[in-house]
């Protein structure tokens, strides 16, 4: 082989090492995944890129099927007590971790205690406040983990004792961050457990390789109960924060599924790739969190409302996102049975009237014409994670506020992991992009993130005792109508205090190769690979 042939071959070999088998290889699926995972510890992760991985790696007591609906997972059945405060799960006798060892009730009990142990670094404890004594244990008022309402009745039976009747409890356990882990192995290895070569999983796949900023490679878990029916042997997840780059990879045949689609390319895809384009309404909200640990935001709800009132959401969804998103001034999205998202009193006003009222609120807060006492314009920093879509939305918001209120905005983008850390620690100055797709279809799943005691995931540091009291009362309400009324009152209070600025109800836009079968669009954005297959 001559020198020229070798030099041409080396880049090809490098590309193959980076990308793995080409898209279309039998039994191999290539999925775009947005960003490098923050962590492979499901109890500490919170983002979409991690969730997509965890649907393949882990399984909860209940699990989401191909349509996003929950059903039996590690537990084959469960029953609730008459008062709704005790739920008992029966594990599958043949349940195995990916190394062949049995999945036991002790693993489940230990895992849920880990979730509410502040020393574990969890970011998902707030979901489990409904478990008896879980909140007191997390906040240090209780130090004995045996008093948390979770116990093993026998090697295959786990009992949860709840602080109150919780209609959504079972469905919530299908959330991919609330999964059991193997007790002995995590205790022995600590953080080293969550790496290729040591991680033991319970889902349809096991971790084989993780290349930072390259890919995560999973292979079919031979010990999963549905292993024989799983058509795809290997799945690659690729972090690609640049959406245009991801689209190019898809068009080059390097990806079978994209994580998203550049908004500007949605109309093009409708014409040129109609069989590939998937647009799906989600049970989720795109919004900005306002940092209430800083002034002038901390003591000026009127200033926060002025920003919310002057956002032209129609322009954002029609000109920027263009994937079927719905403009929204509500924090809770549509989709929870029997609940109507609340709206502020100004929601139906024309923009001219909104601007006039916002300018009045601005002056009342000490910023007439958008200028402070020193005569300089109020400056607002908008922080977002690196992605073209987020940048364009931030640019639009900055332009609207400057034109209508005289406020100057600066834009700060950060890589995914840095961004998450900044938002959790309130290390952003003014406003930070936020979004959430519900872990379960109930208004509480959104509202609970604004409780004063929820911890780092309350990105605004919102603290209103009246709001917390409404959520507590809703939790105790036995009558469903009374419960929904209390939750609606809590949302109205949020829209008055405005610790968050809703922008739109989410829709998912991505490309899925016609070769991929079994893909079912659903509002929870759940697409476990084990339910998919590839046409020859």
Automatic annotation (TrEMBL):
Name of protein: Peptide ABC transporter substrate-binding protein
Keyword line: Signal, Transport
Top-level taxon: Bacteria
Keyword Transmembrane (UniProt): no
Location within or outside the cell: Periplasm
Keyword Cell cycle recorded: no
Domain (Solute-binding protein family): residue spans on this chain: 71-452
Signal peptide positions (record): 1-25
CDD domains assigned: PBP2_OppA (cd08504)
Family the entry assigns: Belongs to the bacterial solute-binding protein 5 family.
Broad class of where this protein is predominantly found: periplasm
